[in-house]
Amino acid sequence: MKLEFTESKPMPRPLPNKKTEPGTDPNAPSVPGPELVIITGLSGSGKGSVLRVFEDMGYYAVDNLPVDLIHTFAELCQHSQEISRAALVVDIREGPALKRFPAIFRKLRRQTKTLLLFLETGDEILQRRFSETRRPHPLGTATTVRRNIAAERKTLATIQKLADLTIDTSQLNVHELRRLITSRFSGSAQEPALLATILSFGFKHGLPTDSDLVFDVRFLPNPNYVPGCKHLTGKHPKVARYVRSFPQTGEFIGRISDLLIYLLPHYTREGKSYLTISFGCTGGRHRSVLIADSIGRNLAAAGCTTKVVHRDMKIDS
Predict the structure, then answer these.
(1) Among 287, 135, 118, which Cα is nearest to 202's?
(2) Residue pair 117/38 in contact by the 8 Å Cβ criterion
(3) How far apart are CA 45 and CA 177, in angstroms?
C-alpha cells in the first residue's frame, strides 16, 4: 500500500490516495505525512512504541484518546498554529465505546487527511510478550491471555478492515519497528529500505503464519540420520559439510539468492516495507538453518537489509 501526503488546511479534503507514492503529489508541501495518524491494533503489538516514534518525528502524540473526542481533537489540530500533524492511539481500552469508532473514522477522513495504522502480531508472540512483561491483558484477568487475545481480535476485526496500512510486528524488535515507521513516514525522498527476514522453521511445528514466501528444502538429504548429527544444528561444521556435499545444495542457494536479489527491489518499489522469506525442513534444526544462514549472507553481501531468525532450531527433536 502506498500513501499520498498533503499539507494541513482547515477545510474538507479528499481521502488519501492509496495508489500514490509519498512525494509524488505536485502540490505536496515541505511538511510530509498525513495530518492525523490513528494507531490501533492488538494489545502487545507495539502501539506505544510506534506512538513514541511519531512523537520523535514531530507529531503531537496522544495515547488512548476517547473515541468521542477524536473529531473535536482533529478540528483543534487543524486550527492550531503549533500543531501541524498529530498521532493518537485508539484501542481495546476504550471499552464498549470502541464500537462507535468505524462511523467516527469514516466521517473524520472526509474532513481531515487521516491514516489508520493497524498493528498485527501472532498469538504465540503476544502470549510470550505478556508473559515476559508480566502485565495483565487490558480485557482483564478473569480468563486466560489466549482467550483475551481471541476476543480482542474479534472486536477489532471491523476496524482492521478500515486500515490503510497493516504492519505485522511479530518478527520486529523495537529498533527495527522504529526504522520501519521512520522510513515510511519521515517524508524522506529516498526510497525506504525493505527489511527481509530470513526465517528457518520445521514443517512438523507448523508453517510460519507471517511468511510472504516459503521454500521447502526437504529435497536435500537429511542430516538427522547421519551418525553424530542428530543433536547438532545447521550451524555446526559437521552438519554444514554434510549438507553442502551435495551439488543441489549449492545450486539451490545460488539460484534462490539470485531470485531474491532480483525480487526485493521490486517489492520495495511496490511499497513493501518488510518481507518474511521462510525456509522449511522437517524439524527446523539442520537443513533450513544452513540454507537460511547462507542466503541471508548472500543477500546482505548484495546490499539488502536482512535479519535471520531460526524459529525451531532450539526445539528438541
Answers:
(1) 287
(2) yes
(3) 11
Q: What is the DSSP letter of 121?
A: -
Q: What is the pLDDT of residue 226?
A: 93
Rounded Cα–Cα distance for residues 188 and 112 (Å): 22
Pairing of strands 36-41, 114-120: parallel
Distance CA 38, CA 51 (A): 9
Give residue limits of the domains in the chain: 36-185, 195-310
**Burial of 245 by CB count in 10 Å (0-12 exposed, 13-18 middle, 19+ buried)?**
exposed
One-letter identity of residue 164:
D
CA 115, CA 85: separation in Å to the nearest integer? Answer: 11
Bridge partner residues of 198 (DSSP)? 277, 308
In the chain, % of residues over pLDDT 90: 53
The residue among 195, 218, 199 whose CA lies nearest residue 313 is 199
d(CA 17, CA 35): 14
Phi and psi of 65, rounded to 5°? Answer: -75, 130
Residue 271: per-residue pLDDT:
65
Gyration radius from the chain CA atoms:
22
Residue type at 276 in one-letter notation: T
64 CB neighbour count, 10 Å cutoff:
14
CA pair distance 61, 55, nearest whole angstrom: 6
Q: What DSSP string describes 192-255?
A: PPPEEEEEEEEGGG---TT-SEEEE-TTSPPGGGSTTTTTS-TTSHHHHHHHHTSHHHHHHHHH
Helix (H) or strand (E) holding 184: helix 174-185
Question: Looking at domain 36-185, does it have CATH number 3.40.50.300?
Answer: yes
Rounded-to-integer distance, Cα 67 and Cα 172, Å: 29
pLDDT value for 143:
78
